[in-house]
């Protein structure tokens, strides 16, 4: 489904919109407090962006280092091409007779896992990893860290990009993710565990994203949710219209890359933004989401070029290109269109445009064009 | 082809010119700051207060009495303690029964505890965090997860100023729990012992 269609019911619920607006405002306030007075925040962001970029560029090496370190400490590493394979592996790792507890994360949601929170009686747990330190083989859970702590089988699930090269890198990333996302100096419960767990590393489209030089920076994401808290679109629509993947601005750049720009959702998400840039301003690892959205809009348009029946906006743009390609044609078009537009106007405003253009006037009026164009006025002045 | 080979192949294939490398990490962020000890300890107290964790500063000879007062205030009658908790910490309290984790308490016994008393590996002033690594006076990790009330004793010497200082001192091979304020329905109270 297209983003705009999926958003319609959400927009029609004013109570939910008020709730989201209030929650987002609170989150922004907390974040501003946690970041504003912190000395060297920008230097920390620079370091975080570089750590994540370096991780992606050397990902193969770090993954192999991680695998060796985990197995050295008595753990096991499994690789999953997609969500179904990950679920199969996890099933085979868990004991049959006891229900497994789950510590949720974006990646456990991605592969569709379900389960109760862990407690002292849990015999097996699946946790979504926050970070994995390649050098030491350490699993870090930065949110609801309790799952690491109960005895029994432990299965960690992570995207291949969740690896960080060295232990020291945590001093940067833990601060960034806590202050930018939760708006606190440190998340309330963080746990680490080295060795003695099974690790499932998930691709599920990530290597496709990695292969696009203009899109791969989206994989720097440390799952802090700061971009959603500042996004005016997300604030109005909530997470649902973003579909089954990640929500908010980071979802708008990841989903089209992972699922392709041909299907309605992937083709519409890059346009679900005003390009206001708030997300790039707050991102702790400096992902330039607006630039990536523009890049993806280009890919959406390119993907449509080959269609036997060109979409309406492409016909429109071709027409514009033709009329603007020649001065006389341009003048003629301008005069004729302005005359038509004035016919539609009442009291200097156009309240409804015909056909497809009508969507534009659904939510706003268009001022009637003046009797005299700028070019005509300029000629007369000289 | 195995999933491993396929995924690693695709990862490497994303960079046709070999490993993308060439990124140096600018480490210009603040790793430590010249701040007097007293200010670091005061900052730790402020951050804890921001996170709604109760904090009291005491001298070593006041520790047992302060702990008694805090446990009484919480009406904590059965208190789980690690086997190697220093005896001097625990006051001879009327009505408070320490449940020593030796032999290990089973989940049912642990669930009945009203609170837990531990030490810590270190504390971070700037974030109001205590870090436990299972070392001296800390016990196993489950101890601090089940009871709804956690009283943690921190020595002033154990408080570092910044997160990088803490990461530099911690051992990655130990199971670490970073606790910053109350969470998941559990309260946190801190006793800072100023002299040792």
Automatic annotation (TrEMBL), chain A:
<dbReference type="InterPro" id="IPR037171">
    <property type="entry name" value="NagB/RpiA_transferase-like"/>
</dbReference>
<dbReference type="InterPro" id="IPR004452">
    <property type="entry name" value="LutB/LldF"/>
</dbReference>
<protein>
    <recommendedName>
        <fullName>4Fe-4S ferredoxin-type domain-containing protein</fullName>
    </recommendedName>
</protein>
<keyword id="KW-0408">Iron</keyword>
<dbReference type="Pfam" id="PF13183">
    <property type="entry name" value="Fer4_8"/>
</dbReference>
<feature type="compositionally biased region" description="Basic and acidic residues">
    <location>
        <begin position="1"/>
        <end position="11"/>
    </location>
</feature>
<keyword id="KW-0411">Iron-sulfur</keyword>
<dbReference type="InterPro" id="IPR024185">
    <property type="entry name" value="FTHF_cligase-like_sf"/>
</dbReference>
<dbReference type="GO" id="GO:0051536">
    <property type="term" value="F:iron-sulfur cluster binding"/>
</dbReference>
<dbReference type="InterPro" id="IPR017896">
    <property type="entry name" value="4Fe4S_Fe-S-bd"/>
</dbReference>
<feature type="domain" description="4Fe-4S ferredoxin-type">
    <location>
        <begin position="211"/>
        <end position="242"/>
    </location>
</feature>
<dbReference type="InterPro" id="IPR009051">
    <property type="entry name" value="Helical_ferredxn"/>
</dbReference>
<feature type="region of interest" description="Disordered">
    <location>
        <begin position="1"/>
        <end position="31"/>
    </location>
</feature>
<dbReference type="GO" id="GO:0046872">
    <property type="term" value="F:metal ion binding"/>
</dbReference>
<keyword id="KW-0479">Metal-binding</keyword>
<dbReference type="InterPro" id="IPR017900">
    <property type="entry name" value="4Fe4S_Fe_S_CS"/>
</dbReference>
<dbReference type="GO" id="GO:0006089">
    <property type="term" value="P:lactate metabolic process"/>
</dbReference>
TrEMBL record, chain B:
<feature type="domain" description="LUD">
    <location>
        <begin position="110"/>
        <end position="172"/>
    </location>
</feature>
<dbReference type="InterPro" id="IPR024185">
    <property type="entry name" value="FTHF_cligase-like_sf"/>
</dbReference>
<dbReference type="Pfam" id="PF02589">
    <property type="entry name" value="LUD_dom"/>
</dbReference>
<dbReference type="InterPro" id="IPR037171">
    <property type="entry name" value="NagB/RpiA_transferase-like"/>
</dbReference>
<dbReference type="InterPro" id="IPR003741">
    <property type="entry name" value="LUD_dom"/>
</dbReference>
<protein>
    <recommendedName>
        <fullName>LUD domain-containing protein</fullName>
    </recommendedName>
</protein>
């Amino acid at each position: 489904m297209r983003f705009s269609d999926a958003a319609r019911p959400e927009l029609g619920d004013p109570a939910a919109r008020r709730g989201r607006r209030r929650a987002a405002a609170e989150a922004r306030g907390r974040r501003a407090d946690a970041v504003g007075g912190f000395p060297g925040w920008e230097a920390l962001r620079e370091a975080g962006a570089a750590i994540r970029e370096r991780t992606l560029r050397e990902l193969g090496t770090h993954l192999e280092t991680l695998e060796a370190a985990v197995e050295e400490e008595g753990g096991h590493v499994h690789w999953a091409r997609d969500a179904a394979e990950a679920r199969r592996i996890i099933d085979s790792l868990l004991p049959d007779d006891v229900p497994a507890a789950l510590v949720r994360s974006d990646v456990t949601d991605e592969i569709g896992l379900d389960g109760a929170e862990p407690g002292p009686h849990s015999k097996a747990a699946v946790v979504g990893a926050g970070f994995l330190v390649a050098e030491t083989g350490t699993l870090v859970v930065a949110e609801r860290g309790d799952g690491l702590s109960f005895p029994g089988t432990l299965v960690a699930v992570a995207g291949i990009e969740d690896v960080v090269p060295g232990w020291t890198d945590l001093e940067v990333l833990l601060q960034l993710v806590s202050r930018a996302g939760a708006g606190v100096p440190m998340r309330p419960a963080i746990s680490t565990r080295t060795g003695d767990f099974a690790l499932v590393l998930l691709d599920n489209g990530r290597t496709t994203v990695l292969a696009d030089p203009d899109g791969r920076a989206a994989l720097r994401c440390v799952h802090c949710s700061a971009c959603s808290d500042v996004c005016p679109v997300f604030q109005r629509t909530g997470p649902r219209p973003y579909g089954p993947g990640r929500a908010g601005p980071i979802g708008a750049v990841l989903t089209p890359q992972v699922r392709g720009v041909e299907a309605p959702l992937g083709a519409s998400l890059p346009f679900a933004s005003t390009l206001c840039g708030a997300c790039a301003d707050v991102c702790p690892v400096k992902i330039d989401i607006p630039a990536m959205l523009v890049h993806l809009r280009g890919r959406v348009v390119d993907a449509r070029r080959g269609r036997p029946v060109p979409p309406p906006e492409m016909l429109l743009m071709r027409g514009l290109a033709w009329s603007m390609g020649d001065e006389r044609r341009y003048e003629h078009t301008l005069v004729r269109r302005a005359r038509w537009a004035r016919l539609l106007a009442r009291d200097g405003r156009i309240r409804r445009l015909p056909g497809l253009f009508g969507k534009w006037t659904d939510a706003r009026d268009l001022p009637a064009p003046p009797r005299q164009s700028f070019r005509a006025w300029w000629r007369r002045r000289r | 082809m195995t999933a491993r080979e396929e995924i690693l192949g695709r990862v490497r294939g994303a960079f046709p010119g070999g490993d993308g490398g060439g990124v140096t990490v600018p480490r210009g962020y603040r790793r430590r700051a010249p701040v007097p000890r007293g200010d670091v300890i005061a900052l730790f107290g402020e951050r804890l207060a921001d996170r709604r964790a109760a904090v009291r500063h005491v001298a070593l000879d006041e520790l047992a009495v302060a702990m008694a007062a805090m446990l009484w205030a919480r009406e904590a009658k059965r208190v789980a303690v690690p086997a190697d908790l220093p005896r001097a910490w625990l006051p001879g309290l009327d009505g408070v029964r320490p449940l020593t984790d030796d032999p290990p308490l089973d989940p049912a016994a642990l669930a009945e505890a009203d609170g837990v008393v531990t030490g810590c590996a270190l504390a971070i002033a700037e974030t109001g965090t205590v870090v436990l690594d299972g070392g001296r006076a800390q016990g196993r990790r489950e101890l601090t997860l089940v009871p709804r009330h956690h009283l943690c004793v921190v020595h002033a010497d154990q408080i570092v100023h910044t997160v990088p200082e803490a990461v530099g001192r911690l051992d990655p091979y130990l199971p670490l729990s970073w606790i910053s304020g109350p969470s998941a329905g559990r309260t946190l109270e801190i006793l800072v012992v100023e002299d040792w």
